[in-house]
Amino acid sequence: MARSRSIWVCQNCGAESPKWVGRCPVCGEWNTYVEELVAKPSPGKSRGGVSSSSPPQPLAHVHSPDHERLLTRTGEFNRVLGGGIVPGTLILLGGEPGIGKSTLALQVCLQLSPGPALYVSGEESAEQIKLRADRLGLPQENTLIYAETRLEAILDQIRNLSPQLVVVDSIQTITTEEITSSAGTVSQIRESAARLLALAKETAIPILLIGHITKEGTLAGPKVLEHIVDVVLHFEGDTKFFFRILRVLKNRFGSASELALFEMKEDGLQEILNPSELLLSHLDGSLSGIATAATIDGVRPFLIEIQALVSTAVYGTPQRSTTGFDIRRLHMLLAVLEKRAGFRLSARDVFLNIAGGLRVDDPAIDLAVTAAILSSYLDLPVTPSIAFAAEVGLSGEIRPVTRMDQRISEADKLGFKKIMISGYNAKKTETSRHKITVIPVKRMEDVVRYLFNPKNPKP
Ligand code: TYD
Ligand code: MG
User: Fold this and answer.
1) Closest residue to atom 14 of ligand 1, CA basis
2) Ligand 1 proximity of 128 Cβ (cutoff 6 Å)
3) The whole model's pTM is what?
4) How many CB atoms lie within 10 A of CB 346?
5) How far apart are the C-alpha atoms of 355 and 253, rounded to whole Å?
6) Does ligand 1 lie within 6 Å of residue 417's CB atom?
7) Which end of the chain is more exposed for a tag (fewer CB within 10 A), N or C?
């Protein structure tokens, strides 16, 4: 039996210390150190990563793996992973509680054919999972449910059954006998993940680990897992809405900027193949305060509706509130509109919504945000046939954004007649291929004049 010793481990970043510390010197969090007992690793045993018995060899002599990627029936899941699951991959699927991680993983298992898939549940009983599977209405023959938290028992079952895919829900509930600290601590998570990784590599069975996210948005025991696993997926969205985004944060076998959209329905998650069509409400154009942005998330272009409401402030301090948009960025855009375009917004309440509860970080939606705000302020609708794609700078200049071609194509495909972009983008962009008319603008004044002053339509 290996001798154990006690160390203090930061539960936020995994940093270790021989004694208790109040504030983690690595990640700066307070009160995150927990005492953990760890067994000294027996000599020769690998702790994370792969180890092989063969001496170094020329790369040219290493056999390329001839296994094919495992294709699940969830097309969007395959696409996000770069075209299916590479054999022996260790995938981490993180997300806030209640977002739908277990649902997604179970759906992938149930549809796997030929199976079997092994679904290890440390959180819910087999009966509870049965209820969920019934709700999903998918065939259940190919999925084995195993309610267990002891790592050693799970490893044995994986070896015995040789399933096509293993799901471990969640990694935070799994404990190994080797370590005496309680489930969910950094050393338990790290050790369990390392042992599962070793098994995945040895047997070529792909393993999907589900991991919870702390309220700060990091995976609990986070950094330690992110570098061990091959693929990190993040499932996100607002639980009050139905849209969910599956985002790739790391992928050793594909692009790390892929993303897929799903909709949470009564009977599980449904893939959204044409996000733009769902995110636009196709209003008739008589409402003010609405503008459409041509945005890109990862590698995926989509059009999204921005809604703004500007009203007279009820209290002395005007309110500003946003859904899906950075509030500091809103403050900045309001200051630009006030100072550079002369709109008195400082005495107004401003509310801003991005359709579907999605969070957008793309700076290219700035122009649509300002257009929606001005439209509501002036109570003049923006014509619904126009889309926007540009960043707004501090001096009111309309700045260029990346991947203009993709944005224009997407707007064109969806039947928009015009797209307003930065004049600096327009020079470099090949526009003759599209039916859509490109409107180049350079300053905020041009935008205002074009949208809200019909007497002088040309910028
Ligand atoms: P769940 O997969 O349990 O989330 P997680 O594992 O990330 O904690 O799903 C959570 C929510 O999804 C739950 O509130 C109910 C909802 N849901 C549906 O709307 N439709 C369904 O078919 C299922 C199975 C769940
Ligand atoms: Mg769950």
Assistant:
1) 98
2) no
3) 0.78
4) 10
5) 33
6) no
7) N
